[in-house]
Design brief:
By secondary structure, the chain is an all-alpha fold. Helix content is about 50%, strand content about 0%. The protein has one domain. Helix 2 packs across helix 3. It is globular, with a radius of gyration of 11 Å.
Length: about 60
């Protein structure tokens, strides 16, 4: 299981997928960030990240399957 590169928390599959969708689709597991750290990096709330996850899942993005 992948861990957040910033805080060390275990990542869920949606967290890996949203990082790859928003930052770098070719990111390796040692680059990934959890939702909270990603939100901080992008200067948005964690709710915005969760909304993006739902949006990409709803439109059928294969990273969220």
């Amino acid at each position: 299981m992948a861990i957040c590169n910033n805080c060390g928390r275990q990542l869920h599959k949606d967290e890996k997928a949203i990082y790859k969708r928003l930052i770098n689709r070719a990111a390796t597991e040692d680059e990934l960030l959890c939702k909270l750290c990603l939100a901080s990096k992008l200067a948005v709330t964690e709710t915005v990240i969760e909304e993006k996850i739902k949006h990409f899942r709803d439109i059928g993005c294969t990273l969220f399957m």
